[in-house]
Predict the structure.
Amino acid sequence: MAALYEATTLCVLNVGPGGSDSGISGIEPSADDDQVVVTDSARSVTVYKVSDKKALGSWTVKQGQTVTCPAIYNPQTSEYVVVTDSKVIRVWKDSDINIDRAFKTTVSADVWRVLSVPDSEPLVLFQRGAVRRLDTLLADPQQPVENVLPEEAVIRWSAVLNVEQQPCLMFLSEQKGETLLLMQRRHPDSAARYRLEGGEAPLSCSALPCDGGVRLFCLYSSGSVYESVVPIRGAGGVVEEVQPLPRTLLLNLPVGEGKLESASAVSLDDAHVALVGVPHPSAGPGKDFLCIWNTNFQTLQAAKEMAGRIYGQLWCSCGKLYVPHGKSLSVIPFKCQKSSLAAAMGKLRQAGSNVPASGLYTSVPSWTAATPDMRSTKRTLLRSRDVSFLRLNQFLEDVKIASAEEVQKKVSAFLSNLKNLHVIQVAAGGLASVLVSRCQEQPGFYPHSALVQLVHSQCLSYSVCPHLLTLALEKKDYALCQFCLQVFPDIPEAVACSCLKAFLSESDGTLDTVSLERDSVAFVEGLIANSTQEGGETQQNGFCPTTQVEDGGGGPTHTTPAVLTRSSMPLDMKCPVGLHKAVLLNEILQVAYSDCFLLLHLKTLSAPQVILFLQYLQFLYGKYSQDLHTQVSALRSPAMTQILDWICLLVDAHFTVLVMAPEARELLSHLHKVVRLQVKVFSELGKIEGCLQALQKAKQSGDVCQYSIEVIELF
Amino acid sequence: MGEFTVHRVRFFHYMPSGICAMAFNRRTERLAVARTDGSVELYSRTDHFFQEKVVPGRQQRSIQALCWVGKRLFGAGLSGEIAEFDLDNLRLKFSQDAYGGPIWSIVCNPQGTHLAAGCEDGTVKLFEILEDQIRFERNMGGQKGRIISLAWHSSGTKIAAGMIDMIKVFDLDSGELRSRGSRMQQSQECVVWSVLFLSDIIVSGDSAGKVKMWDVNTGTLIKNHQVTEWDVLTLSVSQDETSLFAGTSEGTVVQFQLLDVVLGQEEKEWVRTRTFKNHTHDVIALAEADTVIISGGMDTQLVVRPLLDKLDFKSRDSSLLKILFPQRSLVSCAKKAGLLLFQYPTHLELWRLGDTEGHGPPGCILPVSRNPEKLLHLKIKGEDHVCCSAVAPCGEWIAYSTTSGIRLYRLQRDNKNVSITKVPKLPKVLRHAHQLCFSPDSSHLYGTTSSAVHVVALTSAGCKFEHSLKPNSCVEPFGNESQEISDGKFLASANSNSEIHIYNMHKLKAHCTVPVYRSGVSAMGIHPETNNLVIVHADHQIFEFSIEQMQYTDWSRRVQKEGLHHVWLERDTPVINVTFNPQNPNHVILHDSYMFCIIDQSLPLPDRKSQFHNQLTLKSLPEAERLKHSHAFKECKLYQPLLCVDMLENQSLVVVERPLLDITTNLPAPVRQKKFAT
């Protein structure tokens, strides 16, 4: 899951002549999470406080000089570093008012970039590929610089990542239609060269550290996003030969006609990529969007329309995306959650349905499209939106320390305030995770009603918060378990099975004290009441009521004529489990599962549990065969097919145990009778089929022909 | 009753012809109907529109108009000739060229002395009607423009002629033209398809879909009714000139009535009142006969629509009647050989029925082991259409007659080869027959003319004329022979006056006559064993006459005493054929166009209150109770419309069906009409 929050404008752009250039050469993090260094492509460097949209300081070089590399902030020394005219490195502090009076030195070769390294000295990357630490370079500015790259090679992209606590510098160079990735590490001092597959230089690159390597995301002009994993070699040494770098296709974005010209991609986490300049799949042409795509499921997670021209530039810093568009630089906070299939499916369903294009973005309203009368309230609303995002983080912090009652109040207030479903989904997941982890840490803390409320908001799925159900089981919170089983669409078979085990082993006495959902309880009550009242009663003149046709396993179905089953099976048996246990077991029966996975976990049930469960299933089957369940109406009740499938699975999983166990003998023989009757019924139906076909044929042949010989009878 | 194997035959592609002209004779109550194939049919109004006579058609003959003069019927068409039909001998009496090009219309004056013909060259030609011919008297008009329609004023002194874009009125006394030419339609040509000359106004129906009333003296338009978007093709007025009908291309008939503008005051106006839609195609001819309006057109059916539809009781006279199928059999069946002879207007087809070896329960279709086979396709010589045909029971002889001659063929079949030889030297007296039939042993051919029954003996060498039988009391001209059925010993013949003469064929002389009944004989048959003659009349009365005892049988008396069931008497199509079950002498098989019926004479007759169609009821009853509820009439409506039902010697029924859908699909397309949602 990912969401884009309301955008704010950080500054107005000095759009270059012709409007093809945004006028911004780079945005780098500054001293604080809330500050950024924005480097003008011409002469100035500005530091902004993002939340206030306010410039803290601005420095401009003399006319005739140009800034050739984005300024960076060196947190080690609290200094800003910038390169002017490719060779002059300038270093200054916040307190310096005039940049020309600050420290400057000239180096012997052209500098490509100065790159800030977290927790370390910045690195200087020269245009010919050499790398120096800033402090060593400043100590001896005129030191000779070797040429790593040939003269015609051009550096396209560079980045520094912390891999295994060591900075790792990587850059792409393009030469003679070949794109090489060079990677350098200081400790152990090593360098490696990789040739990118395809040859063509990517439009935009982004890198993320991963286990034992770096994941490189490349966006090509065809609209494809490829991922390459660059291994980090343990051994040092410079490997001279060029190794091929395999790539895998992550996303193939619809580009429309032609190719992408200016687009940019930034990987946000291991599953999300933010893209700008790529057309929205369902919006018309002429509109530009900032999109967040899930690379695991290839789904569009969030999109935001960007008014005005897009320059194909995108930066990401501290949970905010910076997009220059039109005449302004927008800051868009975003949130990416751990992606789950359920969440992805939810979004996918929305995207797949034929909702008009405008309907897609309801989750992130576009204020640029607001009607004029809303303009007046825009400012205040903007602020409140902005605040809501900030408040969420604050709120999560609060929840971590508040008492159970306070948590309850806060959660209900939070849920009632948030109207935006999409934001709730993201927020509820986070909130649930926070609560669950706090419960695990603090044994005394268990906000039952808050969790129930969260589950009831229907925004959770198992994969969003995997530990919630297990927690509920541990705490024996069966009511919450029931809600989870009802609401979660994606409960793994193992968890469902452990729930089943817990329910079966719990005593009826404890369970009956639990307050469960009324409707399901009423359904089971109805079943049990029928078994006691109408058990011995025979149906009128033995007539079998109409059998319902199976409607694709949707509702409760009924396949066996009641009369046949009745004659040989004690259908009016007593319910073998308590009322509440039956309710919980019914919930298990309705959980979605895949039988081959479930079978594995079912084997872990103990023999008494299996027998008890089978007896209950048999009881249910008997009730359903009597058609009594149709008299008991309920919103949720297990279908006949579900009951039969579970019987089959249980018998499959524990066949030998059941055969050996003496107490299961009666049960098995009854089930055997049921099966035999079913087979008999179906064979009878098969016989009828032939007759019906013959009838159909006879009817068809009554059509017009020129001559026939018929037999008639007159009376 | 029992099971029957039924050969259900649908390969007789009978196609009726469209109706192109009609004339109703109020004096004799006869309706003459001309069809596009040139045939003329006569229906009796008094006898439930029973088709009494058919004058067979002829190629190239097209009749545009019919006209009764007393009992004489004249017709004229695009061949440019005026012809009189000989209604006794069922052929043309004479025809005379009018020398004016195609004739579009003829009318006779109210006095019955003159005929006027509207010709292509724009003249109205007057003919004097003489005893046996007509004589040209004079020409009127003669300018450009064909004369499409004519109407004679009741005074006999004026004729209105409808032309293209104008109506002309001729004064016969002065011979001068009182032209009332006024362009009827501004934009496009307008054809006056029909005019009527009432006592004070002229009514016209035209191709613009309008019915217009004109003042006779001034020639001004009095009233204009837009009836349809298509053409008004025909008009008809009642005798008292208070009711007017217009037939349109849409298949509708629109009624106008002369009604008081204000109740009780003198002033009257023509008001459009009712619209009938009984046709799918153009209504080309209309005839008004007192209480019914008769319409006919391209969809080949004759529709009799009663105008008194507020009657409380239901009877044959108050219900709509549609006549689509001929009321005589066009199929003859060789019972022994299992052959069917189909009579088309210009050719004959001989088919051998298929066979089956299967048996099955009632309602099933048996597998056909041998398909039916077309043995012969015999084209008729000459231009005349066939008027009757017959195949001998043994299947070796075929005979047919046109108005110009009779031909007899001998058919030899051996192992899939069929050879046919014409039998030469038929007797001269037998020039034209109304009806042909063979004796049951195929040894004799009987042919009837208007005056006698001629007997020809058939041998393998050829044929020999044996005798001419004439009725004992030779009254008047014999009328025409309509039916004639024989068994080995007796032969019965009926004429259109409902007189039935019975001849003894062994003695070759007249045996007796049957008392005359008021309704025409629609079908009859002599029982092969008991020699009882079963007669069915057009009003559905059934008589059984014992030839040997020369009196009605007990069963017949019982029928008359108890009366037939009203459902039976209300049937609107006459019985076409009577045949018998060779296995069970009690069974008489009758059929009309929509059902066949087996009468079991051993069973009681249905009384007035009992259910007449009781087959389904009986089917549902257990067998023991059936007898208690069953009555003599076993009706079967499984197959319809029927052209022939006959029983072969092996007790299997032959049913010749002609599905209505096949007929309607062969009709030309009707005028296109915008239907909702199409």
Notes: The helical segments of chain B are 554-562, 566-569, 615-620, 623-629, 660-666. The radius of gyration of chain B is 27 Å.
